[in-house]
């Protein structure tokens, strides 16, 4: 995520929060009993947002089929969720804010209730779910998402002409039921009906468009699993362009609700997308997905977001190439490799900001080392900038400017410390080993030490876990 200002100063699957059940005593011989099914936890185990995600389930796919009325801002539909129980479950939850009319599990009606302030959809099937068993859950709903909030957020961005579902760390529960945490990636298939004459843009590839008497259904599907908040759709009036660049399909869109001047400038910026991907590949290796693109909304989100395969942008003009670099760098750092917990956010934002610096130095601007020194010398040692713990900033500060800039500084300082060749070997090894999964700061630190052959504990302590400006030493990459 980035704000509208340039350079904002913006695993393998392992489900957590398994509930302990049963007695700790040892049963007598011949008295071995299976533990009773439990209610799956209401959270996946992330301390920043304890209700994010859910225990006891692993989602493999979402098939979202919605209808959206732009004039009334009413959304209705149903979502089919394919999941595996990871423990014996009497009930389980999905994260969802809208009013629900029915739930089925494997075609049978299931009891359901809203809990925890309306964020949790607790589902109780007729029969318990056995650990390791696969199930199909269908949730039907209708509501006005703009009326719903969670964790102090009201994330529905819409006018009577346009809607776009973009936000972080939460967005999915406003338009489809989800296991809403980066630890559970799934394939997302999106079908949205809108009044005839309107367009719908989403992740991945356009699979079909069916025009009826009054409504048109647009069908989009991404090939690769994604984190729920990275799924999106936009509906309204859009100009769409597409093509191929070095074999990679691209599709971009610009809202026609913008002025003619802003539309032209935004399209010029969006057209840079395939060339920026090609430039990033020189350092990071192959782009991780099967399609790329971007969309400029006519609404005013105040930030850009790295929606998987198709980042979303406000209208900022044609000159903000750095913004496109940032969001496309996230396709590697944040999308393909998602955070393990939200405390690891610097692995997303610091890495994407560093790639902005890298783009600058390879396109006639200052070197990364010069940018690092400028930040270091330009911010006094008592400034709040140095007080944020980048390795664990807290829920209220995960998008603090320091996470972005000091995250990038950490990487450039590491580059100074270990040398250019070793540094890029570290990044490429990280991308290769974590591909398609999740990563933590601890894992990155261990990998950097392994690849470099250096003891980097004091280095990362100084940059990530000390609320003070690192000492200007060679060990800290500042000598």
UniProtKB/TrEMBL annotation:
<keyword id="KW-0645">Protease</keyword>
<dbReference type="InterPro" id="IPR050344">
    <property type="entry name" value="Peptidase_M1_aminopeptidases"/>
</dbReference>
<feature type="domain" description="Peptidase M1 membrane alanine aminopeptidase">
    <location>
        <begin position="321"/>
        <end position="463"/>
    </location>
</feature>
<keyword id="KW-0378">Hydrolase</keyword>
<feature type="signal peptide">
    <location>
        <begin position="1"/>
        <end position="28"/>
    </location>
</feature>
<dbReference type="InterPro" id="IPR001930">
    <property type="entry name" value="Peptidase_M1"/>
</dbReference>
<dbReference type="InterPro" id="IPR014782">
    <property type="entry name" value="Peptidase_M1_dom"/>
</dbReference>
<protein>
    <recommendedName>
        <fullName>Aminopeptidase N</fullName>
        <ecNumber>3.4.11.2</ecNumber>
    </recommendedName>
</protein>
<dbReference type="InterPro" id="IPR027268">
    <property type="entry name" value="Peptidase_M4/M1_CTD_sf"/>
</dbReference>
<dbReference type="Pfam" id="PF01433">
    <property type="entry name" value="Peptidase_M1"/>
</dbReference>
<keyword id="KW-0732">Signal</keyword>
<keyword id="KW-0862">Zinc</keyword>
<keyword id="KW-0479">Metal-binding</keyword>
<comment type="similarity">
    <text>Belongs to the peptidase M1 family.</text>
</comment>
<dbReference type="Pfam" id="PF17900">
    <property type="entry name" value="Peptidase_M1_N"/>
</dbReference>
<keyword id="KW-0482">Metalloprotease</keyword>
<dbReference type="InterPro" id="IPR042097">
    <property type="entry name" value="Aminopeptidase_N-like_N_sf"/>
</dbReference>
<dbReference type="InterPro" id="IPR045357">
    <property type="entry name" value="Aminopeptidase_N-like_N"/>
</dbReference>
<feature type="domain" description="Aminopeptidase N-like N-terminal">
    <location>
        <begin position="61"/>
        <end position="230"/>
    </location>
</feature>
